[in-house]
């Protein structure tokens, strides 16, 4: 039987997190109350942070999840990756770890954890049998998360007023009611923020009269909000979302430095171009035009040194991934995984 491999902690990273979360190492048990990690009491956490004791990867995995939860409780939108918490001496300095794990936590009320991320691009994952009424509930729930954007647009030229506060309460009520409605039909919601490097763009208006914009490509580490709908199963604490991307941010940055894309764009749809609002016609057209520019470089030898396969350039979340339920009772931990490839 192979002995489990052990790793020493990244002391600098642990110190940074403890300072940001105001964690006193000698009181680690108190801070982690309700989120205990078996095999990592205060004494061992102190030894970990001092680099005096090594631990298996699963300890760092649990620690990363709990640190992430603590950040969200402090209203800090920050994700902690397990591989940032330990040192792997066998890994070469120039290698970049493109394998990532995030945690999908139960979403029980409006704004709980990842509040800001819920407003961006979404990854919808479904594990339940749907009919028309269930599909309608899911659609209404996903769209209701964007209520904040609509409210901010409506009141963008006014100070925060009692009227807007009432609209915010209505937004919150709409989301919570839909969570309750889904719960009644036996559906739970789990959610988490996924970081994924993509190619995006900046737009600058050149002529308002002609609806003419200047477009410049640039790499962007996008945040996607993963929403998982599951049957109301007993004893599931959270889900592990594991994924891997082909080209990391540094590679996309190098691509931008060597082969920047720049062109004029006539906005024939008469819509305000906003690269943060995805899915509208101008946004999709611009990304298609950028992709066409890169396709022209397909047989350029210098381009191929950076990006061997131009078809693999990421303009959205395109990773292979698997989603694994984690039971509250470790002895009942489910081994079943869902393997898929996003569209």
Kindly describe this structure.
There is one protein chain. This protein has helices at 11-21, 28-31, 42-49, 57-73, 132-144, 147-154, 162-184, 249-258, 281-295, 301-306, and strands spanning 99-106, 121-126, 187-207, 212-231, 236-244, 262-266, 320-327, 338-341. The chain is α+β, with helices and mostly antiparallel strands. It folds into 2 domains: 11-95, no CATH class; 100-128 and 186-341, no CATH class. Strands 1, 2, 3, 4, 5, 6, 7 and 8 form an 8-stranded mixed β-sheet that branches. The longest helix is centred in the middle third of the chain and has 23 residues, at 162-184. It is globular. Residues 331-335 have low confidence and may be disordered.
How is this fold's topology laid out?
Blueprint (H helix, E strand, L loop, with lengths): L10 H11 L6 H4 L10 H8 L7 H17 L25 E8 L14 E6 L5 H13 L2 H8 L7 H23 L2 E21 L4 E20 L4 E9 L4 H10 L3 E5 L14 H15 L5 H6 L13 E8 L10 E4 L2
Helix pairs in contact: 5-7
Task: Record keyword descriptors for this entry.
10 helices, alpha+beta, 343 residues, 8-stranded mixed sheet, single chain, globular
What is this structure, in a nutshell?
With 343 residues, this protein is an alpha+beta fold. The protein is 34% helix and 24% strand.
């Amino acid at each position: 039987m192979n002995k489990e491999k052990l790793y020493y902690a990244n002391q600098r990273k642990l110190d940074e997190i403890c300072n940001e979360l105001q964690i006193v190492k000698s009181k680690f048990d108190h801070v982690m109350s309700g989120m205990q990690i078996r095999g990592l009491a205060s004494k061992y956490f102190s030894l970990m942070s001092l680099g005096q004791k090594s631990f298996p990867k699963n300890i760092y995995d649990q620690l990363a999840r709990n640190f992430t939860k603590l950040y969200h409780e402090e209203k800090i939108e920050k994700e902690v990756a397990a591989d940032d918490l330990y040192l792997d001496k066998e890994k070469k300095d120039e290698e970049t770890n493109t394998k990532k794990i995030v945690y999908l936590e139960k979403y029980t009320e409006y704004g709980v954890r990842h509040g800001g991320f819920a407003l961006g691009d979404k990854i919808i994952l479904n594990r339940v049998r749907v009919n028309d009424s269930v599909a309608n509930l899911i659609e209404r729930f996903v769209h209701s998360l964007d209520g904040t954007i609509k409210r901010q647009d409506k009141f963008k030229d006014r100070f925060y007023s009692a009227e807007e506060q009432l609209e915010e309460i209505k937004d919150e009520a709409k989301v919570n009611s839909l969570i309750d409605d889904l719960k009644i039909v036996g559906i739970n919601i789990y959610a988490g923020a996924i970081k994924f490097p993509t190619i995006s763009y900046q737009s600058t208006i050149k002529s308002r009269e002609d609806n003419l914009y200047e477009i410049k490509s640039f790499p962007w580490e996008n945040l996607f909000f993963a929403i998982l709908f599951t049957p109301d199963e007993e004893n599931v604490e959270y889900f592990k979302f594991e994924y891997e991307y082909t080209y990391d941010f540094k590679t996309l940055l190098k691509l931008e430095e060597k082969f920047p894309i720049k062109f004029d764009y006539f906005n024939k749809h008469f819509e305000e171009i906003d690269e943060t609002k995805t899915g509208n016609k101008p946004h999709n057209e611009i990304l298609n035009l950028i992709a066409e520019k890169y396709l022209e470089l397909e047989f350029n030898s210098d381009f191929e040194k950076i990006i061997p396969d131009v078809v693999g350039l990421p303009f959205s979340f395109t990773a292979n991934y698997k989603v694994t339920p984690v039971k509250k009772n470790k002895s009942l931990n489910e081994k079943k995984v869902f393997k898929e490839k996003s569209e």
